Amino acid sequence: MVAALILRRVVLASCCAVGIVASLYASALAQTDPLPSWNDGPVKKSISDFVVRVATQGGPDFVSAQERIAVFDNDGTLWTEQPYYFQLAFALDRIKAMAPQHPEWKTVDPFKSVIAGDRAAMAKFTTKDLEKIVFATHTGMTTGEFSALVKDWLAKAHDPRWHRPFTDLVYQPMLEVMQYLRANGYKTYIVTGGGQEFVRAYADQTYGIPPEQIIGSALDTDFTYNDAGKAILMRPPKLLLNNNFSGKPEDIYLFIGQHPQAAFGNSTGDREMLEYTQAGGKGALMMLVLHDDPAREYAYGPAEGLPASKVGTFTQALYDEAQSRGWNVISMKKDWKRIFSFEK
Amino acid sequence: MVAALILRRVVLASCCAVGIVASLYASALAQTDPLPSWNDGPVKKSISDFVVRVATQGGPDFVSAQERIAVFDNDGTLWTEQPYYFQLAFALDRIKAMAPQHPEWKTVDPFKSVIAGDRAAMAKFTTKDLEKIVFATHTGMTTGEFSALVKDWLAKAHDPRWHRPFTDLVYQPMLEVMQYLRANGYKTYIVTGGGQEFVRAYADQTYGIPPEQIIGSALDTDFTYNDAGKAILMRPPKLLLNNNFSGKPEDIYLFIGQHPQAAFGNSTGDREMLEYTQAGGKGALMMLVLHDDPAREYAYGPAEGLPASKVGTFTQALYDEAQSRGWNVISMKKDWKRIFSFEK
After folding, report:
1. Residue A195 burial by CB count (10 A; 0-12/13-18/19+): exposed, middle or buried?
2. pLDDT, tens digit, for every residue of A288-302?
3. What is the DSSP string of B93-114?
4. Residues of chain A positioned with their CB less than 8 A from the CB of B255
5. Cβ <8 Å between A212 and B256
6. Contact flag A221-B256 (C-beta cutoff 8 Å)
7. pTM of the model
8. Cα–Cα dist B316/A96, whole Å
9. Model ipTM?
């Protein structure tokens, strides 16, 4: 009787231990894969390893939930940037829409070429030409008016290849990474060379990132009053922040005041951001998206003889630095099971 | 029998209705007052009315939890700013500490007067003199080195009147307001004319506000590498953002990208921030702290013949604007039961 009881207790205890382990195991298996659009492999694993490492209390890389920061470049990292940045598509469409009010543009470049749709001439635009286009289309109005123009354009415009709204061309695997990190306490920031106000106009709805977590190249604003005496902010033709290259870590410090633990980019403009993230220590995760899938998206960059691109330049030097510093290069072709949510 | 049943049901129904109302009432009474350091009156009531108004789903002033933003000036609004800004006290102490390494300062103003403790000369310092002091003490080092200097100073320095750590001189009623707003879904931001990095060094511990929610006047940074090839940010002697007057709403837009619904200030430097907050509509709350309590803190400003102050100037024009625009003026003397947590 006593033996039976003891036996029973041992069996029960074993059952319990086995039960707990089995239950934990089953629970782990039952959990939905947070990155279903990623193919299994070292790149996907580096992301989940990072999340576990940083969340392990008492571990050398533990970061408190409040300090968890992840930064993402936008063009070419979160959505397509070919055949040219979508913000440029917006600006060109605006030039055409504004042309009737600017008859003088018909004879003056860069406007003349845009209105005429002269692709050969547009391909030769200088930085100064692009600045003229940006200032003509992005300034001389209130902040609210500009934001409304962008939202209206995004609701109507379509990309030239898939003929879909531009916001359809966000990368499903990156949406999953952002969601996965946020579920683990991270604040996700966009740190873009593109215009801060442009990205803010759609980022909340498309990425789930609120305006205060968008850091971008920014025009100055001028506080003034409208005719009714109400405070407004006007957009003058003056660049305040050039959020590219060194500007990225400088603005991360300006806006966030601390090192991120994870940084995602895809071009030389992201190099300093990844270096600064790594300098924060704490087992940081640095990743670069390599566009090597011409069938499903585009192919450009240093690897396997891909053509170089002026948009989203990924040099051999950056590739070499990624190797030497232990950054992960994401192959769209190999690592992404699905690129866009509209794929079958 | 049936009559008895009906009667019973009516009584039960009444009991239930009364019970629910009574229970709600008791629950409301039982709730701890979120603003115990405020005296009851219209000013305190304006805060709780605001919180209820903005949180009322379907009401005309409803704001979703994600969009709830409240901004606070720092000097004179969250902590004392007399006899001079505490950041200036830091800079003057740094000049004295650095003097042995700068023998040339003994003969050159403004440094000479600071080292000699010549208060008469220091009272006449120009903006250019102050800039020299700030650049000498705030630049030429990494961002991390500067932050460490501020933290070290705050841990050791004492104010000249109460001989307490400067961080003891935060206003208990304002800590309660910030806590109350955060408990109701608000993100609380500091928007200060003072140095962003200076305030970030203590704001998390003192106010519960993380670095990314501190907007302040900011020096530029320069991305570079240390001798070990590690990415660092140096602080050059160059102002990037002057976060005062019009700079406040402009930087709120730069950092947050939306209108706050509540703004707290205490001087002419906060005027445009309050105007911009009000322009966002949504039943916004604008408040100005009036320093009218020389016994418990300081007295300066427009009301009741208080002396004017160069530090935290509160002009009659600002007072008049507050009246005409329906902003609340907080009398420290009348509205605050307790100013500092160390009061008995």
Report:
1. buried
2. 999 999 999 999 988
3. HHHHHHGGG-GGGGGSTTHHHH
4. 212, 255
5. yes
6. no
7. 0.91
8. 51
9. 0.90
